[in-house]
Amino acid sequence: MKTGTITFHAPNNNGSFLQAYALQQILVKELGVDNEIIDFRSVKQTNQYKTFRPVQCKNDLLKNLASLPHYRKLNIRYARFEEMRNRYLMKTECIVSEEDALKQASKYDVLIAGSDQIWNTSAPDFSPAYFLPNVDKRKIAYAVSCGSVAGSAGLKEYEGAISAFEGISVREEAVKKQLQSIYSDEIGVVLDPTLLLNEADYQSLYQKAPLVEGDYIFYYSITYSKDSLKAVQKLSEKTGLPVYTVFTSFHTSLSERYGVKVLYDGGPSEFLNLLAHAKVVATNSFHGTAFSLIFHKNFYHLCDMEGEKMKKDDRIDGILEQLGLASRNYCYQQEQLLPDLTYEKADIQMQQLRKESLEWLKSTLGC
User: Fold this and answer.
1) 176 & 282 share domain
2) Predicted confidence band of residue 153 (pLDDT cuts 50, 70, 90)
């Protein structure tokens, strides 16, 4: 069986690369399936992750100005991502147009859409190609996501393409509820591919020696919201630990105002190294949370505030609730540190979720 995957593998985003790597490892090594990733990189996706973006609006200019002081290190980061993709992913030649991506898709016996936020229609690099329209092949979707708030997904427009899928599984219960109104068959809720592997499976991707000596907090964010920055600053003050992060977007420089030390040249290998050796992980990112779980870290899920309540995140809250770890939510208004985390009960539940997710993938593929 020859399978092709279409996913967010090309963004210079740690979670995007690692979920693509993990799913391919499961398909090839666990299920014995021939697989390659369709190396679809739209122009808008490529431009979004360049060190300097083509200036089409004021926001692009501001992002370029924010990147200018770190130009050399950001270019190193860009090269590190590309090196990891070339070294660890089995993929086609680079494809730029949606039309060519769908032509490539027609060459496989089975197509797999996912994981990551490929069905988030409001994502800057969204493309209808991720719904594989008019491709007359067996198609399944594994652990697709629509972002942090599934209700804004805008999936109705693609009802015809979605209905052509032989099987669909999603990462979040909230996405399942959205899809149930337009997809008649059963929808599975499964783990993100990164969670199908364990810590040992990632050790070949990063060096053993720590990049940072001594104890520290690893802060991982994509948005760098003010609430999360105030929360990690409070954690630093209460624990007496310095805070380190890796560059993820032009917002990263905001964290320096809160005393955070930034590694501007860090790619997936540096992300894993910093997380693996951290005393504490503080994150408002789904994959920051996922790898905290995989590496059994003492972590804090940093929540933004909505009035007097912590703001909901369908992706992060969903997995924490499944594992009985909703108590790891933390905001800057809290005075007490969270108790150190033990994983005995969560690991039992994680093993069950892994088993169910693999069973869904095996049965849907027909392995």
Assistant:
1) no
2) low
